[in-house]
Amino acid sequence: MSSNNTDAKIKVDAYFNKEQPFKQGIAFLRKIALNTELTETYKWGAPVYTINNKNVIGILAFKHHFGIWFYNGALLKDPKKVLLNAQEGKTKAMRHWKFLAVNDINKETVTDYILEAIENQKKGIEVTFTKNTDVKIPEILTGALDKNIDLKRKFNSFTPYKQKEFITYINEAKRDATKLNRLAKCITLIQDGIGLHDKYRK
Fold first, then answer.
1. Which domain holds residue 168?
2. How far apart are CA 8 and CA 3, in angstroms?
3. In the predicted structure, residue 7 carries a pLDDT above the cut 60
4. Structural domains in the chain (count)
5. For strand 39-43 and strand 66-70, is the pairing parallel, antiparallel, or unpaired?
6. Are strands 95-99 and 66-70 parallel, antiparallel or unpaired?
7. For position 89, what pLDDT does the model report?
8. Which of 11, 26, 59, 70 has its CA 20 to 30 A from that of 113?
9. Is 50 helix (H, G, I), strand (E, B) or coil?
10. Residues near 72 by beta carbon (within 8 Å), at least 6 away in sequence
């Protein structure tokens, strides 16, 4: 076992061993996942299960519920109508199956959903994203870049994808005060050469 795999296992075990209200529930989901051919690893602070190095599901516990994230859940048949888009408007692919108690989990049904997700991933069936090239740079960002040559140079050094993340982050703010706060955050990251979501890409 490589050091990376050992490190992931330690983190996964710590996640499941942590004392919290849904410890029994996520342990049951883990057992179901491990009875399939999925590989257990650790990403973004939680257990993630992959096939051929592609993310299939994640198991997470929150304050008031726990559940499974299906990374391409939008493509599942969902006969029980249990899958939710917990980030409406922010994700086209991911779906969440929420549980409130371990007794809510039907082993056979959950297994069927996971097996379908595995087969889809094996076949390369994934949600495709169309590129939106019509992205307007907010005036407050343009103004900040024009006033600081070094800042503008650093912004231009980012890939178009990362530039778009900064632009979208500011544009999505509804209030002017929020836009300014987000601009300040973006400027700090740009100055440090850090992308908006780089910490999630480790």
1. 139-200
2. 9
3. yes
4. 2
5. unpaired
6. antiparallel
7. 46
8. 11
9. strand
10. 56, 93, 94, 117, 120, 121, 125, 126, 127
pTM for the model stands at: 0.63
Q: Say which residue, 130 or 100, is predicted with more confidence.
A: 100
Residue 104 lies in a domain: yes
Q: Are residues 101 and 145 in the same domain?
A: no
25 and 57 inside one domain? yes
The backbone torsions φ and ψ at residue 44, rounded to the nearest 5 degrees and listed phi first, read 55, 35
pLDDT of 197 above 90: no
CA-based nearest residue to 102, from 21, 14, 33, 36: 21
Put residue 39 in one of left, alpha, beta given phi > 0 → left and psi -120 to 50 → alpha. Answer: beta
At residue 112, φ and ψ (nearest 5 deg) are -60, -45
What 8-state DSSP symbol labels residue 38?
P
Do 151 and 76 sit in the same domain of this protein?
no
- Residues 18-30: tens digit of each pLDDT: 999 999 999 999 9
Question: CATH number of the domain that 108 lies in?
Answer: 3.90.1150.200
User: Are 107 and 74 within one domain?
Assistant: yes
d(C-alpha 87, C-alpha 107), whole Å:
26
Same domain, 107 and 7: yes
Mean pLDDT of 131-151: 83
